[in-house]
């Protein structure tokens, strides 16, 4: 049996304003990789993550609209093979859904 390892790839990152109540926004990051990745969501340029999810393919965080300090957030996925990053911009008016689909 062979083990094929690959670095993480960010499949998609999106913002959904229909999670929980109307005062919340959810940011979700989907990743593939073998072995599974550790995923973090943070504001670009900051070392402290808003949330970290270990050994998984999905990570999401719920943020109160009033607590959004920046319009940009970064999803970082790392495993033993490598690291991938993707930034998403949240629309200022929070209307609709911001969405990024990663290229394959």
From TrEMBL:
The lineage of its organism: Eukaryota, Metazoa, Spiralia, Lophotrochozoa, Mollusca. This is Ig-like domain-containing protein. It comes from the Eukaryota. It comes from Dreissena polymorpha (Zebra mussel). Residues 8-91 form the Ig-like domain. Coiled coil: none annotated.
